[in-house]
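Friendly challenge for the regulars: who can give me the structure tokens for this chain first? No prize, just bragging rights.
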Amino acid sequence: MEACSKRDFFKLSEPDLKLILESAGFERYRASQIFDAVYKKKIFNPADFPSIPAKLKSYLSGNFEFAVAKLIGGRESEDETKKYLLELSDGARVECVLIKAPSEDGKDRKTLCLSTQVGCACACKFCASALGGFVRNLSSSEIVSEALPFVKDAKFEFENIVVMGMGEPLMNMDNLLAALNVFNSPEKFAFGARRITVSTCGIADKIEKLAEEKFPFRLAISLHGATDEVRRKIMPITNKFPLKRLIAAAEKFAASCGRMITLEYILIDGINDSFAQANELAKIARRLHAHVNLIPYNNVEGLNWKRSDAGRRAAFASILKKAGIAHTIRREKGKEIDAACGQLALRGRRAAAVER
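First reply, four minutes later:
Bragging rights claimed.
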């Protein structure tokens, strides 16, 4: 006889849980106690739920999955960037990163970077996640579970969430939206929508869908090239969604959702850091009323790309400044702990392959 698979707890609403408990012979009001334990007190082991009878704790442990990912490793850099390696129920590994950096108000804030896929199918040529290819999507609970190691004294250690780790979020859209709802829902973690940003490499048709659905969260587009010619060199997705289509989708999103888009731009030496690219980027940012985030490239073992030097980054930024474009140059974070997307997980996969 096959063992019954556990039900995904994080997908349940409180009314759903009441019905389930009632059908199992427990009092309906226990659902409120359980929700309070998980989403307010942030206790993720049923054995530790307060005011819950032992019989119900046993039932919950045996029938519900509360945390799919298991923390198996972590590294911390001198700048307090923390990278965590997580193992999923099938042995697959993903990573998330906790980054401390100044925010718009000048204060240091911690941002948690989440993954949505094991590997990635978009094959951006500079990205570590792409080196291992695409394995599978994460479930909504697996995405949520990445945040659970960052809970201390019933509070999240972070003030913001960015979904720009391993994988392309909009190619796992249903699970992404379900996970973000768990974070944002008033009856669950009640994490503010404006403190959540989803980053995409430019899946234009999905951006259009987000616009139609009035997506409540922030959107960042990993542009990394201001012309199709340059973008195709490093981002194959450009062949399917050239800039004309992508920019039109971004305009639709901005008009529908009423929030400023961020254009992420990794500066790679000799590839996309020319002054001509800076001028074209300024045109795109002006058209979209977007903020530009310039990012030093994190070198990846096995790839020949190199970061633009500090002088080139400053000169590139000065062109944006003269054009009146809101922009920031991201401070380098976590270089010594391989904090770029997918590097730690890729090393883990290579080591496991050697062991086999």
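The chain has a mean pLDDT of 90. The CA atoms of residues 204 and 246 lie 5 Å apart. Your move, everyone else.
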